[in-house]
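Chapter review: from sequence to fold.
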Amino acid sequence: MASLAAAERFGEYVMYEQPGEWVFAADPLGSVELDAGELRIDWSGRTTARAWTGSPARVIDAALAELALGGRKAYGWIGFEFCAYSLAATKYLNQRTPLAHLMIPRIEVRIDASGVRISGATPSEACDIHDLIAASQGVPLPVSTPVDVRIDPTDYAARVAGAVAEIRSGAYQKVILSRKVSLPFAVDVPATYRLGRANNTPARSFLLRLGGLEAAGFSPELVASVDDDRVVTTEPLAGTRAFGLGVEADDAARADLLADPKEIVEHAISVQTSFAEIAAVAVPGTSAVSDFMAVRERGSVQHLASTVRGTLAPDRTAWDALEVLFPSVTASGIPKRAGVDSVFRNDHDPRGLYSGAVVCVSPTGALEATLVLRAIYQTGEGAWLRAGAGIVGQSRPEREFEETCEKLGSVAPYVVEA
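The token string follows.
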């Protein structure tokens, strides 16, 4: 997949890994872009732009329905600021704030246990794809460039202390504050993905170049999925310790995680919120929690994790479910409205794709949105990493800073300079 992305032959692309399957979707036939002031649809060689109102989820759903997709899926991303409309935070946006970018690919390359399947490509392109895949086998992993993740011009500890004071005053229960680590060099994003994926254990992974943004990441959890049976699933992860320091240290960290009241409270209120959100769009009585407070390893960290499911109500769509569950409770705050307001006030920069989602949308109505956290980002203005921590009343600023360093350890050691 990294070799296909690096080949520079297929234009813009989104690569997405699900359990047991990888898809490389490339060379868009068209796209749907949404920012705070405008909806743009590019299809059949024609671009239209118009103002929009209401729910961004329903606007995108309706825009995709306008297109003659011919059974094709759409792939792309939605940014954290997408949530501002459902959570009364639009005052923090300007007209050009990007909210979402989806594309409909001409070419799809799928790889699973049964082999390689290519659709939409010419015979010559299909031969090139097979050659690129064959040539990638056995190539040594790239060499990374060290990144100092402890540099912090954002005064993270002071921002955490301010949030703790707000929480203790009763303003809200929890907020996730993050910090950005700018990189002093241009990044080879496909090579970084390849090296990072070899050293991570994500729930999903992605690699994309779309609309001037390159990104690669190792997602720890789903924000939302709706399958063809209309089952809605989300996977809140909250509560973190380091992982990968050796069996004895990892076991000790796991035991500490399972016994820490702060981490247990943080996780329990996240699951409670996710359950209420799914119940709001599900058939009554179908919402349920499974694997409560399991420990799942995700690269350089281990988390407390649970799974929440329900059956989507007949009058609801997959986009309705995504809007209710987005942003992930583990990347925003509790209650969500107050938590998101705190994020906009206390985080140092607009988040964009960080704590947003990479999405795959099926013409059957199914949808999957994976949370973007352990990732690298690059535009023409530079490259950066970003990580956050869940802040509650018991939080200590120095510990929350260490948690961001632990999370950055899932990506920072694998950054490959261009």
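Two observations follow directly from the output. The domain at 2-414 is CATH 3.60.120.10 (Anthranilate synthase). The chain is about 30% helix and 35% strand.
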